[in-house]
Structure formats: structure tokens, C-alpha cells
């Protein structure tokens, strides 16, 4: 089976059957060649219903998780998005097909460099890759319509709300008292954030100056 056929099967069997029904998200997932974003030894597993390992003890999320987050953000074609945790660049590639521009920040320089080159070679010209502490966001390029965090934090870093436009959305997995991770959507209304929990997921830890609660710093 070709990678194109595997991709179509992934959309039909892993996404549509699990309530991913936004046509734009499904089209994006069907278009982005996931096999180009995994390690060479993992290419035959690129469309498995699972996360896969990357260098530096990082992971590329399972296709369903990427699609779920993209759908939950309710992106419009004119939106500008900040992604925290570039990894291989796969998530940014998916988001780039839904938004006007994606700024993505990665704390590991080697991963950022690889992702930048990969995205360039594949023609994702509306993605900019930065290196830095993702918990600080990118204040020099804010505000953003949406912020997508691909690692689990103990608390919501304050920079995100400050860098979000009115009506904007933040999606982040948060660790609760039992160490479970809950996907959490914040919507900015005026100066307040409305919170909605969307279910349990599993991510690598969010690392940075503001990844933990103030009492723990």
C-alpha cells in the first residue's frame, strides 16, 4: 500500500470514525505527508494509530491527536497561530493548511533546524520556526488568534493570555492533581479566559521557565 493510500485509510479509519468531522481538518490531514516527518526507520509506521519517537526523547503525536487539536482550535484561513513545541514540524504543517501563518517555537536547536529545513523543502512557506523557551511565547510577533501547545504543563503560562487576541483560543494539555493530562481549551473574552476541558491525552512534559506553577518556581 502506498503512503497516499495509507494516508487516506488513516483519515477514514482513525479520524472520521472518532468524530473528526471538520472538512478542512480532514483535508489537511489527507494532504500532509506524515512519512516525511518521522525518522527513516519509522516511515513504515508513519500512519499507525500511535505516537512515534523522535530524537532527543521527543515524540510526534498520533494522527488523531493532531487532528483533534486542529479541530478544537476552530481555525479560520486568516488566523495567525503560535505553536509551542515544533518537534518534527508535522503539527505545524497541518496547522499551516488551516491558517494564514504559523509561528512555531522549539527549545531544542537541532530539532528546530531539522524541522525548518524539512518544512522549507516540502513547500510550507507560511511556517516560521523559532528557537527558544516556548513558555515565554513570542511577544515580539504577538498577538495571535490561537496558541497550540504540544506538551503538558502544570499550569497555563501567563505569557499565552497576554499574547492572545480578544476571542482567541489557547489549547494546552494540563497535568492535574492525579498526574493525568487533560486537554484544555481557553477562550479569551475581554480580559478573562473561559476554560473548557476536552478529555484525557498523553504528551511529553512542557519544559521552560513558566511550565510549573509560581509556587513551585
From TrEMBL:
GO biological process assignments: methylation; protein repair
Keywords for the protein's UniProt record, in alphabetical order: Cytoplasm, Methyltransferase, S-adenosyl-L-methionine, Transferase
Catalyzed reaction equations: [protein]-L-isoaspartate + S-adenosyl-L-methionine = [protein]-L-isoaspartate alpha-methyl ester + S-adenosyl-L-homocysteine
Keyword Cytoplasm attributed: yes
Gene Ontology CC terms, in alphabetical order: cytoplasm
Gene3D superfamilies, per the entry: Vaccinia Virus protein VP39 (3.40.50.150)
InterPro entries per the UniProt record, alphabetical: PCMT (IPR000682), SAM-dependent_MTases_sf (IPR029063)
One family name in Pfam for this protein: PCMT
GO molecular function: protein-L-isoaspartate (D-aspartate) O-methyltransferase activity
Enzyme Commission designation: 2.1.1.77
Leading EC class: transferase
Biological role: Catalyzes the methyl esterification of L-isoaspartyl residues in peptides and proteins that result from spontaneous decomposition of normal L-aspartyl and L-asparaginyl residues. It plays a role in the repair and/or degradation of damaged proteins.
The family this protein is said to belong to: Belongs to the methyltransferase superfamily. L-isoaspartyl/D-aspartyl protein methyltransferase family.
Protein name: Protein-L-isoaspartate O-methyltransferase
Organism in which the protein naturally occurs: Planctomicrobium piriforme
Amino acid at each position: 500500500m502506498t503512503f497516499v493510500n495509507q494516508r487516506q485509510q488513516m483519515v477514514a479509519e482513525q479520524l472520521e470514525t472518532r468524530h473528526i468531522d471538520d472538512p478542512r481538518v480532514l483535508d489537511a490531514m489527507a494532504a500532509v505527508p506524515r512519512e516525511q516527518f518521522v525518522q527513516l526507520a519509522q516511515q513504515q509506521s508513519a500512519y499507525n494509530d500511535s505516537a512515534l519517537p523522535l530524537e532527543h526523547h521527543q515524540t510526534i503525536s498520533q494522527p488523531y491527536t493532531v487532528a483533534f487539536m486542529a479541530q478544537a482550535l476552530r481555525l479560520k484561513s486568516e488566523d495567525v497561530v503560535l505553536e509551542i513545541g515544533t518537534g518534527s514540524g508535522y503539527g505545524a504543517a497541518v496547522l499551516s493548511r488551516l491558517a494564514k501563518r504559523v509561528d512555531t517555537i522549539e527549545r531544542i536547536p537541532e530539532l528546530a533546524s531539522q524541522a525548518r529545513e524539512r518544512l522549507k523543502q516540502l513547500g510550507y512557506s507560511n511556517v516560521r520556526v523559532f528557537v527558544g523557551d516556548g513558555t515565554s511565547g513570542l511577544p515580539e510577533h504577538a498577538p495571535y488568534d490561537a496558541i497550540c501547545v504540544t506538551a503538558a504543563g502544570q499550569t497555563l503560562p501567563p505569557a499565552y493570555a497576554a499574547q492572545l487576541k480578544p476571542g482567541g483560543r489557547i489549547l494546552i494539555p494540563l497535568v492535574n492533581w492525579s498526574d493525568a493530562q487533560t486537554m484544555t481549551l481557553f477562550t479569551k473574552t475581554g480580559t478573562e479566559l473561559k476554560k473548557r476541558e476536552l478529555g484525557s491525552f498523553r504528551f511529553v512534559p512542557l519544559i521552560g521557565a513558566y511550565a510549573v506553577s509560581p509556587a513551585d518556581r
